[in-house]
# Entry
Amino acid sequence: MTVVVGSLLPQCVNAAIKDKGLLTFVLQEYQGQEEAEALTRQIPELYRQRRFDEAIKMAERVVAIVERAFGRQHQNVGISLSNLAVLYSAKGEYRRAEELFNRANAIFEKTLGSDHAITVMNLNALGDVYKAERDYERARQIYSKVMEVRERTLGPEHPDVAASLNSLGLLYDAQRDFKRAEPLFTRSLSILEKAVGPETAEVAACLGYLGEHYRALGDLNKALPFLRRAMALSEKVFGPEQLQTANSAMALGNVVAQRGEYDEAEHLLRRALAIREKLLGSAHLDVANCLNDLGSLYFDKGDYKNAERIYRSALETYSKAVTENDVVLVPCLQNLASLYTRMGDYSRAEPIFQRVLTIRELVSGTSTPEFATNLSNMAVLYQEKGDYAKSEQFYQRALVILERALGLGLRWTPKSRQLRART
# Structure
């Protein structure tokens, strides 16, 4: 009797499907096989539900079973370690994820070789961890190494090379190095249109990256045609009522809203919401995210009553999908507090801003740029209230964090309420 054990989780699952089982190994029966297989089947659903602690316990048990069956240096142990690393990364425990991906990489290089597709996928996932940690130079080095291996072993026009180009492009976008990102996305799109065809899921994704790139750059006129193409292609490739189409509708709707075209934006966001509710249920995280964006549309329109109602609905949905201190709550909480600040309802805004700071501190500490941004938002609240001394205290705390985190020389300018960088 033979069995199939292990496959890399979300970062690599698409490659596993495309390569028809590349990430699996056929093995003889082993002690604990039935338990390991049962646990492995449960983990992806727990991942989707963000029940990471439960998933991690199961994945750690799988690692123990596989190590006992095959020894610590077997390639299947590497796969189990990589799966576990994915879960720690999703939970935000990046140091632990980094350790596990490195352990897996050492095993893969020894058993499969440094050019093997599994080794390369695991290495790319390690690059994702460094990107999440904002260790952009190490992420760049890894993504570049992955692309070099793929170009050398697969050829410069292979879809996996395009995937590496997208990874590098997204990295440069995260650094706001838009000039270096754009040609990478453009080359990726050219490769994909030739290698897999112009009307494919891969091309739709790349069009979406280009649209979001131009949106981040502030060039909404350039972003719009890419996002419209991505939307049309998603409808054609996946169907009008599928999640990929909902994702495209959300991206397009947000750009249309930024252009002030609120009627079309509302139609797109409500369409995305309806699809997600139908396919995922009303208590899903992605439904909450869609409600948050819809609330922001009403905020931008100046319809504060509907904005408040929808933000509150989003928070209720988040409460069903995640724990009370999950970082995914932050954008919606921040939006609701900003709404109350705009409305002059400072007594309701302040505790929400404070909750945001508490979540940030619990999840990632007090030295990140995000924490500094939340401090500056609290400073704006006190400035609006006329408590300038307290406002300045929060601004100055934010400045110190940003100077340390980003290496920038900054000054506080009370009149503009902006954090400004000196060149």
Summary: Residues 327-423 form a domain with the Serine Threonine Protein Phosphatase 5, Tetratricopeptide repeat fold (CATH 1.25.40.10). The radius of gyration is 23 Å. The CA atoms of residues 270 and 310 lie 12 Å apart. Confidence is low (pLDDT under 50) at residues 1-26, 409-423.
